[in-house]
User: What shape does this take?
Amino acid sequence: MGDAMTDWERRLSIWLPVVVSSCAIALTLYGGCQDRHFRRLTVRPELDVAFQSEAAWNGWVLRNSGLGPARLRWFHVALDGRSKKDWTEVKTALPLPRGEFTFADPYPDTIVRQGERVNLFGFPGDYPSRAQLRQAAPRLEMTICYCSLYEECFRASSASGFIVKESCRNPPKDAFLGAV
Assistant: This one.
């Protein structure tokens, strides 16, 4: 019995470290991909635009109920299928009595933090024509396109409520301008 290795042992001693190191590299790559996916999910925003009628506010709100901040890309408002360029145009087109309305302009690159709520357009307090406003709500559609920290982009609409994963690169030609 000598210390001499057989041909099979010699081949095994050459290839076994290669196989083990290849498995280690593959496992590291798989773990990195899983970690990246997990990190994307932990900071994914989820914006929604909805009509709310409550004691302190009657109107449309923008909420981020996701786990991370959202960066707005574009915002679009349509009343009866026709695009509106600013809130004054929206208020004028709605059959509402005169009164003070409050609005916020969701400009591109605005950051909406996790848990943040923005009152987009409406009337504060106990608005006398609350029923009229609630009746007009389905006629107004607001669509917003936003991206996460990892540049995953989504689109949400007040009409459907669904969040669609898509690119925000091409805003509509009649995107909302806000207060002019």
DSSP finds three helices and ten strands in the chain. The chain has a mean pLDDT of 84.
